[in-house]
Every structure is written in structure tokens, then in C-alpha cells.
Amino acid sequence: MDLSYAAATDVGKQRDHNEDSFLVDRALRLFAVADGMGGHAAGEVASSIAVHEVREALVRNRDLVERFDSGDPSVAADDLSQVLEHAVQQACSAIHRQAQDEPDKRGMGTTCTVLLIAGPPGATRGFIAHVGDTRIYLVRQGSAHQVTEDHSLANELVKKGKLKREEIASSPYAKYKNAVTRAVGVYESVDVETFPIDVLPGDSFLICSDGLYPYFEDKDLPKLLASATIDDVPTALVQRANDGGGHDNITAVVVRIADDHVTVPDGRAEELTLKLKVLKGMPLFHYLTYVELMRVLNETVSRDVGAGQRIFTEGEPGEDLYVILTGKVQLHRGDNEVAVLSRGAHFGEMALVDRTPRSLSATAVEHTRLLTIRRAAFYEMVKAEPSLSVKLLWSFVQVLAERLRKTTADLSGRDADAMGITLTDEDLFID
Question: Domains, the chain, ranges and CATH?
């Protein structure tokens, strides 16, 4: 997959030295931004160590990345995520050791946000490692999405419902709004957020420090990154921040994936769009953002089922939730048809709760493509993503409550018909 990139950094209008560092390595397809902290030269040292150590760690694991690029089935996406996590941990240890050796640098640290592009043509992925409030944005099909979540006090207050985002500037916490809750090097180790993301022709990525992103709205980003000459983009972004006040150091790394005369094998772009559309239309995932839906997709597996093929049988323990991408599925008890489901429908969601035996059988009516989520993967996602888990579990409760209401209403209707009487919602205690 052909890509181009450009980067720029500037001290800004209100600082006397630049504590940001960035990394671009075309050979490795590795990009990073680090925003140092610690005062004097300490922040600059911390950010510089971070990008250096990350690159060195990837150089040592170049063989693993190249095997993934070649499609070697023995190298999984999780392997590259672990490489990035270890790279950031190595940077954390190096920064912490130097801070212990040099008293004037005690407590120094840095944010560190890394993007690695890897994988064979038609199956290319972006691997992200993230600590702090430096951000990665994805621009895809004319829309911008913040891919990373800020590890900051302000964001934690918003997530916990203590503040609304627009209230931060006028709140007592305003002076702490730039405080980060995770940093590389302050302690011997750090909790590194890692995850993969699909990369498609035409995608653009922006990695930037917090000296830049307060000066643009997400909706403006597609236009800002659309310059015909990519070398002009980071410079223009830096200028925009300086024109707005330049309150901090400013760094921007822009990565653009070529889309000229590129055909994605097997309609990968179309399938990704379909998956996102179908998941977004499901009550279970209705409240998730684009990026959260991408996180869910990372835990799914696609499966093709031929016409007449049994998906599961009544009485079997349930393990998977199924979503129909294309085709039709018949739910039946023995030879008695219960329902026929088509594109966008889902079934088997109780398997995400426990291994209760299936109450029905499921058979493909025609060639069908299914998206599956296993219970173990669902639990891992819930444990790893607290804010995402709240949305998922709340939606899950709503789905089950709606089904319970419908079942109760159906049963009540049958009883009423049998007795020749009419019951109201009040009689059934249904709200």
C-alpha cells in the first residue's frame, strides 16, 4: 500500500523551547509524536528518548513486521500490538532510569502516540500504541474521527459525568485541564493502550500534540488535510495554531494512504462499510461512536455459510452472537419455522451472557455471510473498555427488556383470548 507523509513542529507563541518530538520512518512505516513534560530541558529529553527507543524496538523486531507484511499466518495482529506495547514500555524504563540518574530531571515524562502501518496489500492495518493526550485522527470518506482517547484529567471528569466538555474552561478544574493521567517515564512502567485499526486506500491520519487540536473542529479536518501537496499540510496546521494563539508547542505528522488506481481485493472497503452500517443499526451497538464500533469489529470474525448449512442446533451450548451481513437464516425448532432473518438481523445474543443451551436451531437459507462475536472476546472488551462496556451493557439490558415486554404481551394475549377477556398494560404491570 503506497503512502506519503509529512511533518512539522514549532515552539508556538507562548513557550521558549520545544518539548515535542516526532518520528517518521518510511522504511518501517512507523510514525509517532511525543509531548514532553518536566520543565527546563527535561521534557525535551523525555520526548526525544521516547521516539528513539520506540524506533529502536521496531528495528529489532523488523523481521516480525516483515513476516506480517508478507501474510505469514504464524504472525498475528496481536503480535504487532505487543511489539508496540513493549516498545513504549522500553521507552518508559529508559526515561525513568535517566531521571533517577540526573536529579534535575526527576519526574520528567512524555506522552507517546505511535502509528505503525503493516500488512500485505488488501489486508493492511494500522497498529496504535497510545499514552497521554497526544491524538490520532482518521479521515475516511470525508469524515473525521478521533481514534485515540485522551488520558487526561479533563476527559476523566467528562467520562464520569462530573463535567460537560463545554464547561471545562469555566470550571475550578480549568487550570488542570492539560494534566495527563498517564505519562511515559514518570514511573518505571505505564499502562499502554494498544489496538489495531483497518487501513483503506484514501485514508489519512493526523498525529498531533495538544498544542494543535484546540485550534480546529473535527468537521473541518477533512478539508484541512485535503491539500494536493502533503508537504504543505503540517505547515499549514502549525500556522493555524500559531494564528490562534499558539499556547503550547505544536507538532503535526500527516500520513496519507494513496487511493489512485487502487482496487481492494474482495471488496474490503465495501465490506467494512457494510459491517459498520449493520452494527450501527443494531440496538445493541446503537449508542457506540465510529471508533467504538471499530473496536468492536476488532473482536469479530467473518464466516461464510452455504445454503442449507446448519449454524447451530437446538440444545447446543451457546458461544457466539451472530450478525447477518448478507443472505438469510432460518430459525426453527425441529421442522417448525420460527422466523427467517435477513441482512442486519442478529441472533444468539444470550450466548454473550452464559452458555445456556440454544433454544432454537439456525440454518442458512441461502449463501450467507455472518459476523460473529464470541463471549470470551466480549468479556475481554468489557473489561478493557469501561466506557464502552457501560454503553454495551445498558443497550443489552434494553434489548432484553424489550424482548421480555413482547413475550409477556404475547403470552398475555393468548391467555386473554383463551378466557375471552381483554387485559391492559396496567393489569400486567407493564410500563
Answer: 3-263 (3.60.40.10), 264-431 (2.60.120.10)
